[in-house]
Design goal:
The structure holds 2 protein chains of 2 kinds. In chain A, 29% of the residues lie in helices and 22% in strands. Chain A is of the alpha/beta class. Chain B has 2 domains: 163 residues, Rossmann fold (3-Layer(aba) Sandwich); 152 residues, Rossmann fold, CATH 3.40.50. The longest helix of chain B is centred in the last third of the chain and has 30 residues. Classes of the chains: A alpha/beta, B alpha/beta. At the A-B interface, helix 6 of A face helix 4 of B.
Chain lengths: 429, 325
């Protein structure tokens, strides 16, 4: 299969310059930029006039709920949601049921994606400990051999600092990447909202900032000691950004992401106990939100993810503290990200890096770049199409989103994986 | 807080969920209506037909003695049919969801729900999901609000002090976990109380509590200086666990209300307690039974205040039905 994309608006992720070029794809790879390689004959042409062409988005944290929670979502529904929204690679945390702590589960996920999936690349993240129980190390080497791209204990606590240190040491020896969502479970307690004036007013059990920062401080010390490559996921606090900045200045092998909703919502959005904004870590203050935005712009936070957590209706149809946390995020990752550019938080090229080349580099995944020889995972985006977010119309099975009614610009017209058009919008939104 | 849920488009009570979101006029109307009911409760035949033909369901997902019994008495005196469920021991234990419990009861033509539940926001949740015309009264949601308790406290204060605008009021104790304190703070501020103080050890004081419009004290003796009203909160014994406090003994030594400490307050100061009190933990027996204590009066005012709120809600829904017809 060969394909010729004409008049593509392409943005450089380093200097943010923009140019309009033709892109030539063959046998799943990008074979020419600007001019066709010798002897190239296009079987198909797409005119991308006035449209952006981006590498397919790489979502470094998305729960597909498969295996184990079909009432919430499954690989079929969520890979369709991904490709419809320009996400070509999904990294799946290990807290499936059963957890991703054995080769059979890894194979099951790969098999399901092959049979039911919509061609998106699905990358399992292995459990750091058996059953995510926090006590015994998982078979990291074997799991890696089976295709786990990194190891994490998701949101489950480790039994002790000793277990954590040994897990990190072992992973370092394997050359594996560890992904940590810093969270001190004692300080988290039964909290469900950021500790501050809003939680006080609403009488909601509060989650102090230290639930994240105390854990992060320990984690950074252990990175320093073990030398393991570590990625911190879904940060929420201004103070975490400061700690990250200092650790990066020291040259520690660390990187970080934050969930895109943290850049738009704060604890004020809880309003009248809106359970759709219940997340862990919680939405924090305006001050934290602004610091996270700045950190994303500066690159202290390397990646943006959807932190996709689809739920069935009943999971949210409860009083706030009893509802299940998480936002269905695949359908809003790209439009929210583009909004950051419109709000002048960062230029488009830098934004694209946070969603593509940075996660690809950190996680060691193909794609993420538009350059000759690179795998042809590309998306075509109409940046001007205007639509109003209606969660009921999400492609994801999870309709739990607080972004209903938001004004968005930009939608995906084509998604290509391995040079094949696997999604084409019937009509722009 | 969005007030549209508990008020109709004419600004009248549709539900009674939180003091926050109400205005001074409604609070005064509740207090005035309650005053008119006090005469009913003093009569030999203590009934009026305001809720005749209406069914009120009391859903207590958490244990309660005095709130529940005063609600039931208020309902009886308004001639309502009453269904009281101790939900703790019934369906939800068997896995029925909160919403299913609600809908099953709605199918029994309930007109009004009185709800206590451990989750903050549960009363709002119910109000968001009942059929139009059905009302929800919050009898305590988690650590959020307990608005009828606050209104009976306001009634008590007005009864003894008439005017709020020159009062200093101190709320003492476990502010962090107290829904009563939150409702009282909103009510006192809406009624233009000159100064509202909260007094507690740091571990029982919520973060940024001053944003609710209070002055914060960690020292009881300083906080009591020249106050006109002292509201003591119950200290739950569970608080010793989880390292919030060292011991009951030390708590009493620092935050217990004794006769001696009460002397720092204004000589005419009244002492209140939403009950049930722990004698010797947060309050000395001689203060509780002393001449400045109005604790038992609070309980009896509770009936008229709850009658007032329910009658205002029904009056409203009756008007609404007439307007719909």
């Amino acid at each position: 299969m060969s394909l010729h994309i004409q008049n593509a608006r392409v943005v450089d992720t380093v200097d943010n310059s923009e140019r309009v070029i033709d892109i030539y794809l063959q046998s799943g790879k990008i074979v020419g930029l600007g001019s066709a390689p010798n002897g190239f004959r296009a079987e198909k042409k797409i005119d991308a006039q006035n449209r952006l062409v981006l590498p397919g988005l790489i979502d470094c944290q998305a729960r597909l709920r498969d295996p184990g929670e079909p009432e919430k979502a499954n690989i079929e529904s969520e890979t369709l949601a991904a490709i419809s929204n320009g996400i070509t690679s999904l990294c799946v945390p290990p807290d499936t049921q059963p957890p991703i702590d054995n080769s059979a589960t890894v194979e099951l996920i790969h098999h399901r994606n092959e049979v039911f999936g919509h061609r998106a690349r699905v990358y399992p993240i292995g459990a750091l400990t058996r059953g995510l129980g926090g006590e015994q190390l998982s078979n990291m080497a074997s799991l890696r051999g089976n295709g786990c791209i990194a190891f994490s204990n998701a949101k489950q606590p480790l039994a002790s600092n000793l277990v954590q240190r040994r897990a990190m040491d072992y992973a370092a020896g394997e050359g594996a990447l560890v992904i940590i969502q810093p969270l001190d479970h004692d300080l988290l307690g039964d909290g469900c909202a950021h500790e501050g004036a809003i939680a006080t007013r609403l009488g909601l059990p509060a989650i102090p900032e230290a639930a994240e920062t105390a854990a992060l401080a320990r984690d950074i010390v252990l990175v320093e000691q073990t030398g393991v490559r570590t990625h911190f996921g879904q940060l929420s606090c201004a103070r975490s950004v400061e700690m990250l900045r200092r650790a990066k200045d020291k040259g520690l092998p660390i990187s970080a992401d934050c969930a895109i909703h943290q850049l738009f919502l704060t604890d004020h959005d809880i309003g009248d106990f809106n359970s759709n904004v219940l997340t862990i870590p919680p939405l924090r203050s305006q001050y934290d939100r602004d610091a996270l935005r700045e950190a994303v712009a500066e690159g202290i936070i390397d990646c943006l993810c959807s932190d996709h957590q689809p739920h069935e209706v009943d999971a949210k149809l409860k009083p706030f503290p009893s509802a299940q946390p998480g936002i269905s995020g695949l359908d809003t990752l790209l439009p929210l990200a583009l909004r950051l550019v419109a709000e002048e938080v960062l230029p488009l090229g830098s934004l694209i890096a946070r969603l593509t080349s940075n996660p690809a580099g950190i996680l060691g995944l193909p794609g993420g770049k538009i350059s000759v020889g690179e795998v042809a995972d590309l998306i075509i985006v109409d940046p001007d199409s205007h639509w109003i977010c209606d969660p009921a119309r999400f492609v994801s099975k999870g309709k739990n989103s607080p972004f209903g009614g938001w004004d968005f610009h930009g939608s995906v017209t084509h998604t290509l994986i391995d040079g094949n058009v696997i999604y084409q919008a019937d009509q722009p939104r | 807080m969005d007030s549209s849920l508990q008020l109709d488009d004419k600004g009248r009570l549709r539900h009674f969920l939180s003091i926050e979101g109400l205005d001074q006029a409604i609070l005064n109307e509740i207090l005035d209506t309650a005053a008119s009911f006090t005469s009913v409760t003093d009569r030999t035949i203590k009934k009026v037909p305001i809720l005749r033909g209406k069914t009120v369901a009391n859903l207590f997902f958490e244990a309660s003695t005095r709130t529940r019994s005063t609600f039931e008495l208020a309902e009886q005196r308004l001639s309502a049919d009453i269904l009281s469920l101790n939900v703790d021991t019934s369906a939800t234990v068997k896995g029925e969801s909160l919403l299913d419990t609600l809908q099953n009861l709605e199918a029994m033509q309930i007109d009004m729900f009185v709800i206590r539940h451990r989750d903050s926001g549960s009363a709002h949740f119910f109000a968001q999901h009942v059929r139009p015309g059905v009302s929800v009264l919050n009898a305590g949601d988690g650590q959020h609000e307990h608005p009828t308790q606050a209104m009976l406290d306001m009634y008590t204060i007005r009864h003894y002090k008439q005017d709020f605008t020159n009062l200093r009021v101190a709320i003492v104790g476990d502010i962090l976990h107290s829904r009563v304190a939150r409702s009282q703070i909103h009510a006192l501020n809406l009624l233009n109380t000159a100064e509202v103080r909260v007094i507690a050890p740091r571990t029982l004081m919520p973060v940024a509590v001053e944003s609710l419009g209070v002055r914060v004290y960690n020292d009881l003796e300083q906080g009591l200086a020249d106050v006109d009203v002292v509201i003591m909160l119950r200290l739950q014994k569970e608080r010793m666990r989880g390292a919030l406090l060292p011991s009951e003994k030390e708590y009493f030594r620092k935050y217990g209300l004794s006769q001696e400490r009460l002397q720092r307050a204004h000589p005419d100061a009244i002492v209140m307690h939403p009950g049930p009190a722990n004698r010797g933990v947060e309050i000395e027996s001689s203060v509780m039974d002393g001449k400045q204590s109005v604790i038992l009066q609070q309980v009896s005012f509770g009936i008229s205040v709850r009658m007032a709120v329910m009658s205002m809600i029904v009056g409203q829904s009756r008007r609404q039905k007439r307007a719909d017809a």
